[in-house]
Amino acid sequence: MEHATSIHIGTGFVNGSQTYATLWAHELSHMWWGDKVTCETAQDMWLNEGFASFNEALYTQVVNGETAYRDWIRTNHRKVLQFAHTPAQEGSYLTMNNIPHEYTYGMTVYQKGADLVHTMRYYMGDSAFFAGCNAYMSNKAYSHASSFDLRNELTAGSGVNMNRFFDDWVFTPGNPHFSIDSVIHVPGGLDHMYVYTRQRSKGNNHLYEMPIELSFTNGIIETVVKVVIDSATNVFHVPLYFCQLGLRSTEENSE
Ligand SMILES: [Zn+2]
After folding, report:
1. Smallest Cα–Cα separation from 133: which of 124, 172, 164, 142?
2. Residue 115 in contact with residue 80, Cβ under 8 Å?
3. Alpha helices (runs of H) in the chain, residue ranges in sequence order
4. What span, in angstroms and rounded, lies between the C-alpha atoms of 79 and 44?
5. Cα-to-centroid distance, 34 and ligand 1 (Å)
6. What spacing in Å lies between the alpha carbon of 193 and ligand 1's midpoint?
7. CA angle, 150 as apex, 8 and 102 as ends, to 5°?
8. I need a labelling partner for 197 at 20 to 30 A (CA). Which of 22, 95, 175, 207 fits?
9. Which residues of the chain have pLDDT under 50?
């Protein structure tokens, strides 16, 4: 449990093994996310607990590697999609910066918060993400902050305009789903791939703007193309050289 400048770990969680290591990572990270900068209101608790929960994943990545990190994120992501809005949890899709008091310490704040920070990290890229977080920590140090403050500090500290991301992910309840609807291959000297994507959502009627990676491979060469989904349906034209060799396409980052 965190108290400002004094993180407490119960003796039952210090047993000579690494069993509770992610708990320690979570609680110690509150020295920054919660204590150095405190959420302005309880409705914005994800600024403390979403980031502290994400730090469990970050610890896992540093200590146990990339696969362990992705496993942590996927397991958590599935839990959020499956349960956060159900009657056993919060009963509806909640907006991240307007959490009702009875759910201050609920699944949307902790688990969806962590999921959101991972999405933010991917959206910004690592160097911009960590630069933005550092700016937030420096400029809001020993003070309080709202989701709007975090958005503005991330933008100023990284050079990535975060207005649209926060409109989509923080100020809108629910979740998007991105998928590849179909792929048309027009062969030639240069092969033309037309990738049709589809966007759906649960808990809102909102259209998100999200960069995703399309990966094309013939089993030998892989080409990755970054595109931005911004409509209910999009089509992306990707010219490639190696299609004749037997192409298969895979979908990444569509969760
Ligand atoms: Zn916590």
Report:
1. 124
2. yes
3. 21-29, 46-64, 66-83, 107, 113-124, 126-139, 147-158, 163-169
4. 21
5. 8
6. 46
7. 60
8. 95
9. 246-255
Ligand 1 mean position to 48 CA, how many Å? Answer: 7
What is the model's pLDDT at position 148?
98
Ligand 1 centroid vs 245 CA: distance in angstroms? 52
Residue 49 CA to ligand 1 center (angstroms) comes to: 5
Structure tokens at 251: 């979908």
Report yes or no: 158 and 128 within 8 Å, Cβ to Cβ: yes
Ligand 1 midpoint to CA 110 (Å): 8
Q: Ligand 1 (ion): which residues have CB within 5 A?
A: 49, 52
Q: What is the pLDDT of residues 215-230, one digit of tens each?
A: 988 788 889 999 999 9
Rounded Cα gap, residues 223 and 136, in angstroms? 36
Phi, psi (deg, nearest 5) at residue 145? -150, 155
